[in-house]
Amino acid sequence: MSEVESVQRAGEAKADIASFDPRILVFTCNWCSYAGADLAGTSRLQHPPNARIIRTMCSGRIDPIFVLEALRDGADGVIVTGCHPGDCHYVKGNFRAEKRFHFLKMALKKLGVEEDRVRLAWISAGEGEKFSLLVKDMVNRVKELGPSSFKPSKIKSMEVLTP
Ligand code: FES
Predict the structure, then answer these.
(1) Among 41, 82, 90, 99, which residue's CB has the most CB atoms within a 10 Å radius?
(2) How far is the CA of 83 from the centre of ligand 1 (A)?
């Protein structure tokens, strides 16, 4: 490849990244973080339209497999949110979520997926602004990473998830 071609390709790659519009999936819990997301909306706080929300009853319900499947199926980043520690309506759900999140990070490392594609955050019903900033920050972070290269073939065997 000539020097001109390699410069052209580098330019095209930069253009691809600039036009990259990441898909972000946000898991929320019913009682705190969903209400925070709702407050962001009703307060008309601006954040990029890249996020899709899935409401669960509690962050403790979010299995790492859900996150891996989201990444496998086209999400470029996933945020898991819940009530602040001590505020979970099921007492220990968010502590369970935190443990699972560490496990998820280990699994991502084994799969060769950038850890920054996932994030855990605690958001109360009154933290609409925090939710909005979180989404903005995640979109920017994932834009820097570029599109996810996580391929379905990598998750065919769950062996990779055993510690
Ligand atoms: Fe919100 Fe459990 S109910 S984290």
Answers:
(1) 82
(2) 5
